[in-house]
Amino acid sequence: EPEVTQTPSHQVTQMGQEVILRCVPISNHLYFYWYRQILGQKVEFLVSFYNNEISEKSEIFDDQFSVERPDGSNFTLKIRSTKLEDSAMYFCASSDGGHFSGNTIYFGEGSWLTVV
Amino acid sequence: RKEVEQDPGPFNVPEGATVAFNCTYSNSASQSFFWYRQDCRKEPKLLMSVYSSGNEDGRFTAQLNRASQYISLLIRDSKLSDSATYLCVSEGGGNKLTFGTGTQLKVEL
After folding, report:
1. What pLDDT does residue B1 have?
2. Residue A27 region by backbone torsions, left for phi larger than 0, else alpha for psi between -120 and 50, else beta
């Protein structure tokens, strides 16, 4: 089965540092997403990306966050100046169409970010 | 009020038991609903979509009641491998999924 791959699987960073989380979505997919899950809490939507632009973002996705699809295969999430409360599992996901159209959203295994 | 609300559990059941989870949602504009399964520190995986007519996939049955804004999941003949957290999820358009906090299931010998 095709899969979404994410790197790194775990990253520890100092508060204030920039972090880039990388994702390779499934190759024929058109929609890309980032979600996060703080330990012990629910999975939360951050941003969706389609046709090389952000299609929707949540209140969590403030100016310190950005996404990019630099080369047609990778999809990255950048956190400019990390805070302690950014510590979470970050899930990348992709789909080839809208979920409401019966298209499944596939999640990667996640990147654990620990900010110290 | 939480957008998607679930009983966190845990539900501890013996192998072979039938267990039911419920979920309510507050956004009446939500279009689609799903049950995802999440193992400890792993990614969510789609278990099944939920339709008003009800749908069944093997031992799993899901039901949606739009009038009551209520979703259910029934697991029959539960197995040890069913132990996981079950996430109730709604989609309100734009491919944005809203997750509940999840219901933890532990199936025991």
Report:
1. 67
2. alpha
Tell me which chain B residues have a C-beta less than 8 angstroms from the C-beta of A99: 32, 34, 91, 95, 97
Segments in chain A below pLDDT 50: none
Q: What is the pLDDT of residue A70?
A: 85
> Which of A81-90, B34-43, B88-97 is least confident?
B88-97
Give Dmax (Cα) for chain A: 42
CB pairs below 8 Å between A and B: how many? 56
User: Would you say A115 and A10 are in contact if contact means Cβ atoms under 8 Å apart?
Assistant: no
Burial category of B42 from C-beta neighbours within 10 Å (exposed 0-12, middle 13-18, buried 19 and up): middle
Quickly state the pLDDT bin for B53 (edges 50, 70, 90): confident
Residue among B41, B27, B19, B42 at smallest CA distance from B103: B19
Q: Which residue has the tokens 């419920």?
A: B22
With H, G, I as helix, E, B as strand and everything else as coil, classify residue A42.
Answer: coil
State the pLDDT at residue B20. Answer: 96
Inter-chain CB proximity B95 and A44 less than 8 Å: no
HSE-up (13 A, CA, CB side) for residue A33: 27
Q: Is A111 helix (H, G, I), strand (E, B) or coil?
A: strand
Q: Is B93–A109 a contact, with Cβ atoms under 8 angstroms apart? A: no
